[in-house]
Structures are given as C-alpha cells and as structure tokens.
Amino acid sequence: MGTARTSRTPLPGIGVRYDLTTREHRRLSVVAHRDGARTLSAYREDDPDACALSVQLTGGEAEAIAGALMPTHRSPSLLSTTELGLVAERVSLSSVSHWNGRLLGDTRMRTETGVSIVAVLRRADAIPSPGPGFRLAGGDTLILIGTREGVDAAAEILGRE
Known about the structure:
Elements: E1 5-11, E2 15-21, E3 27-33, E4 38-43, E5 51-57, H1 59-69, E6 78-81, E7 86-92, H2 109-113, E8 116-122, E9 125-128, E10 141-147, H3 148-158
Antiparallel strand pairs: 1-2, 2-3, 3-4, 4-5, 6-7, 7-10, 8-9, 8-10
C-alpha cells in the first residue's frame, strides 16, 4: 500500500497551500489563509489540474473537520470521556450570545440539563468553579461536565443568540 505524499507551498500575502496526493493518486489541497479561513479543494481524477470541488471554510469549520479526521474521531472541543458516561467539553460563547453580560445563574444550566459549568476560560485567565453570580462575556469558553445528552442540550442553550 502506498503512502500519501504531501507538500507545503508559501503563498505570499495569502497564506500557505498544503497539497496531498493519496495512495490512489488523487490530489487534494488546503489553502490556510492568514485570516484563519481555509479553502479545501479536490481535483478531478481524470485531470489532476482541474478542480472538481472547492469549499471555503471558517477557522471553526476547518477545526471541526480536522477533529472528525483525527484517528480517535473525537471532537476538538471534547476534553475527556469516562466509563461513567460523563464528558467534559468546551463551549464558547459568541459575542452576540443571549448570555453575553448575563449572570451564570440565569442560564439555569444545572436545573435544565444536569450539566455543571466547572470553569470559565477568559482571555488568558481560568476561573474555576464560577458561582451563579458570575457574569458571562462573549468570547468566554465554558468547561462543562455532564452526560453526552446534557452537554449537547447545554451547548444548544449557550448557543442562543
């Protein structure tokens, strides 16, 4: 079985292009733009210079795809899974979040989902065990612990705009 061949090409003023040729001689490329965006392209099998698909991705979308492609197939936001059925996951608040500027207790997170918010990451600071009087801000990353279903429900609540 052949191995994938990769190359890296600087694109001045744009970013870097990464090319991959698979063992089946299919060509893929990713342009990593300086602003964090990515362009994923796949080339035609009968003409490796003709682009068959080109997809523009935000940094977050590219990260989600990279997480799905990892050998362990874990979400990049997933911190751990235990035999007890609990997960710890990171959820980020957007700047337009409904919860931006509101108190953590207003989310009723534990009551509604059974999930605990065990820490908040804000810029370079970590706030462990924030209480109900803690004021949330856009850009915060919340560390949640609960069941998979609870964490999914919590992420939906926290994603409210």
